[in-house]
Amino acid sequence: MKVGVLGARGKVGAEVCRAVEEAAGTELVARVDAGDDIGVLVESGAEVVVDFTHPDVVMDNLRFCVEHGIHAVVGTTGFDEERLATLRGWLADAPGVGVLVAPNFSIGAILMMRFAAAAASFYESVEIVELHHPDKADAPSGTARRTAELVAAARREAGLGPVPDATSTSLDGARGADVDGIRVHGLRIRGLVAHQEVVLGGVGETLTIRHDSLDRSSFSPGVLAGVRAVAAHPGLTVGLEHYLDLD
Ligand SMILES: NC(=O)C1=CN([C@@H]2O[C@H](COP(=O)(O)OP(=O)(O)OC[C@H]3O[C@@H](n4cnc5c(N)ncnc54)[C@H](OP(=O)(O)O)[C@@H]3O)[C@@H](O)[C@H]2O)C=CC1
Ligand SMILES: O=C(O)C1=N[C@H](C(=O)O)C[C@H](O)C1
């Protein structure tokens, strides 16, 4: 499998290049960074592209890949419903091309999101705290957004109302961001990599589900799993869990 990496010099991209070079059955044929000619992906015969770049450039990258029939495994964040709909539109004109957009490739983070969704219907209260390094481009994290959406959907399905909160006066931002009715708080601390807590509460008890990526190598096995499977999943897939057998 010939693989090109977009954002190859970046913090995650460099790790992905290493993993692709070391893995069996994958060959790194192109490294592309800001300012490079993306056409090298076609010239090098890349069958799959991995994108860990920036929310501002990822859509242009993906349009190029889809138009040129190259499958894409995307870790870059910044995807909302509008962007996903645009991607689906491009893919409708490119039968057979697969794009995987995953807010988090680490297995622990995928399980954390799953456990949080499973617990959501049992608790009146829930809030999310995401903690990252201070060089992160976006807030809240893609993982926190996705977790909030999953938790909110589980609460709706269970017939739970809004999360209780009697706050009637506060400084802007003191209660975090509202994502689908779920409060999300972001910390940017030197020394951290990528961490998240989902704090749930009911009568007389709390449950905290926490995940820590201590090193960016935590994303590589999931990225490689995506690279190997994306061609067999034409169209758009959101979340690596759809490629994994978690049951
Ligand atoms: N889904 C997941 O599991 C994970 C997702 N992420 C996400 O991945 C993204 C990248 O994170 P991170 O590696 O920390 O960021 P970095 O800033 O370290 O890396 C981004 C890289 O992309 C390059 N780049 C910028 N524009 C382009 C372009 N048009 N074409 C090719 N390369 C470009 C940058 O180059 P230059 O520096 O020269 O501008 C840089 O090398 C973020 O959105 C982050 O949230 C991160 C970790 C895990
Ligand atoms: O920028 C990062 O570092 C990370 N970004 C992703 C996100 O926004 O969820 C995944 C992980 O949290 C690391």
TrEMBL record:
A GO-annotated cellular component: cytosol
Residue stretches making up the Dihydrodipicolinate reductase N-terminal domain: 1-105
Known function: Catalyzes the conversion of 4-hydroxy-tetrahydrodipicolinate (HTPA) to tetrahydrodipicolinate.
Gene behind this protein: dapB
Binding site for NADP(+): R31
Catalytic residues identified in the record: H132, K136
Family designation: Belongs to the DapB family.
One BP term from GO: lysine biosynthetic process via diaminopimelate
Positions contributing to NAD(+) binding: G7, A8, R9, G10, K11, V12, G75, T76, T77, A102, P103, N104, F105
Span of domain Dihydrodipicolinate reductase C-terminal: 108-244
Binding site for (S)-2,3,4,5-tetrahydrodipicolinate: H133, G142, T143
Sample GO molecular function, one term: NADP binding
Location of this chain's protein in the cell: Cytoplasm
Listed name of the protein: 4-hydroxy-tetrahydrodipicolinate reductase
Catalyzed reactions: (S)-2,3,4,5-tetrahydrodipicolinate + NAD(+) + H2O = (2S,4S)-4-hydroxy-2,3,4,5-tetrahydrodipicolinate + NADH + H(+); (S)-2,3,4,5-tetrahydrodipicolinate + NADP(+) + H2O = (2S,4S)-4-hydroxy-2,3,4,5-tetrahydrodipicolinate + NADPH + H(+)
Pathway: Amino-acid biosynthesis; L-lysine biosynthesis via DAP pathway; (S)-tetrahydrodipicolinate from L-aspartate: step 4/4
Enzyme Commission number(s): 1.17.1.8
Keyword Cytoplasm appears in the UniProt entry: yes
Keywords recorded for this protein, A-Z: Amino-acid biosynthesis, Cytoplasm, Diaminopimelate biosynthesis, Lysine biosynthesis, NAD, NADP, Oxidoreductase
Keyword Oxidoreductase: yes
Top class in the EC scheme: oxidoreductase
Subunit-level organization: Homotetramer.
